[in-house]
Amino acid sequence: MTDFGRRRPLYSQLWVHVIVAMILGAVLGYANPDAAKAMKPLGDGFIKLIRMIIAPIIFVTVVSGIAKMQSMKEVGRIGVRAIVYFEVVSTAALIIGLVIALLLRPGAGLNANPTELDAKAMAPYVGNAAKQTTTDFLLNIIPSTLVGAFAEGQILQVMAISILAGVTLLKLRDRVPQIVALCSCSWFSAASRGCRAIASWRFSGTSRRRFSWSSPLQPPKWPCPV
Q1: What is the Cα–Cα distance from 78 to 72, expressed in whole angstroms?
Q2: Omega within 30 of 0 (cis) for the link into 223
Q3: pLDDT digits (tens, 9 = 90+) for 205-217
């Protein structure tokens, strides 16, 4: 049985690690708040590592997915399904959050007086949200530079670049078959899986074999099979 067909044990799942870490963090914060505060740089560093790898994952996945489709009609059909799915799931999440807030009332009973809180801390966020119009939001999706979107971690801009690159390769697949084939070969797939491996802290052993080709010294034959 291959690595893809073998079911991984529960203790090796990333979501299990996250849940265990959250529980341990809550216990440590309750038992020893000073030690928990001292470990804040570890959490900040982990979040930065995750954010560092999000943009490459989005770009590689979207470009390879669009480039390997047969026509723009198929791209549009899948795009509509993705939008509908996103709207349904987002609406359900909002409803669940609203119901939980009304029933459980999180934050109730805290020893905090709202009149004594510093409202100026939220002023920059409220001001920026109020000043941004629909036109500004749409124009902000277009990056000033190609590299700037990746350097600044602007996810919407990275998504726009990925869609444009994927559609361009799809329209020019007959003129640039080598580039389209590259999106389907093991190198491009290895880049996507490698980013996921880094994000899940499993760049070793079995995970390394999942996205590696036959030998690091012998790259796949050109053109790569589609």
Answers
A1: 10
A2: yes
A3: 444 444 444 334 3
